[in-house]
Amino acid sequence: MLKKLHISLIFSNLAVKIKTTKITAMHNLYANFVKILEVCKHFAQDLVNKKGNITRPGVVPKFSDLEVIALSLTAETMGIDSECYLFGKLDEYRKQMPNLISRRQYNDRRKLTAQLCEKIRKRIVEAIDGGEDYFIIDTKPVKVCQLARGNRNKMGQTCPEKAPNFGYCAAQAMYYYGYKLNAICGISGVIHSYDLMQASIHDINYLNDAGQILFNCTLIGDMGYISAEIQLNLFETAHINLEVPYRSNQKNWKPFHKPFAKARKRIETVFSQFDDQFNIMRNYAKDYIGFFTRIISKVSALTVSQYLGIFS
């Protein structure tokens, strides 16, 4: 009883610390760009050269790789997910950004710098809440197109194992064509790990990756992650205590601890932010690389927003 009370106090105290994730001065694209660029420079000191570029042969770009990442994250935090609309807005800031690249170059280099963006995001996560002991795991459907157009969609033709397909979301009781966004976040709402899987793959498969990422912690999930075998394997290999609610007709049924049920709502709030603020359900990508790049930008933009909301 004392242990449950202690856990309840932990969750209640952490809930008080949660802050909003919106950046101030949202109307000023250049001001937000400068602010996010400073964050990128701070966390990418040994990942890029002095000019802010990934070291590679060829012409040195005047608009650095870090500036490409910062511009991408700025657009996402401001809810601008259309490159056409973004570059229309950037015409107002040509004087402040004289080395701005073209829309085509931006699209190409955004894909090229996606992994650098993810490395920066992971460092920001460690700075925000590197000492978490409780995590929540959940899955969100991400549609590529409407069901009727699924059979005609050409995304991933060159790489079938990364192509979208048809799946079913039990939580929303809907069939869809696309991917599953698997995410693990802390109690504060910061995403520590995520992955995109084909829609037809069962949620429980992501638990195998969780055992390689997390150690000595409690992982809270829903009924989709019920598996006595995987639960035991996670505990033996990584000392992860997987807490999931029992089904009503399950043997040895026991009630789900209320603070755990309350904590699970945090990741649902994060998914709602992806829908409302970051427009994750709108897809403009024509290939899977572009689609994955957009997801990396959106998750990274949320993390940067949380960092600025906590420390600004």
Question: What does this molecule look like?
Answer:
With 312 residues, the protein is α/β, with parallel strands linked by helices. Helix content is 45%, strand content 15%. It contains 10 helices and 6 strands, in the order ααααααββββαβαβαα. It has helices spanning 2-17, 29-43, 65-77, 83-90, 103-112, 114-129, 206-213, 228-238, 258-276, 288-311, and strands at 134-145, 165-169, 174-186, 191-198, 217-220, 240-243. Strands 1, 2, 3, 4, 5 and 6 form a 6-stranded mixed β-sheet that branches. The longest helix has 24 residues, at 288-311. The protein starts with a helix and ends with a helix.
Record the SSE blueprint.
Layout: H1 2-17, H2 29-43, H3 65-77, H4 83-90, H5 103-112, H6 114-129, E1 134-145, E2 165-169, E3 174-186, E4 191-198, H7 206-213, E5 217-220, H8 228-238, E6 240-243, H9 258-276, H10 288-311
Parallel strand pairs: 1-5, 5-6
Antiparallel strand pairs: 1-3, 2-3, 3-4
Helix pairs in contact: 2-3, 3-10, 6-10, 7-8
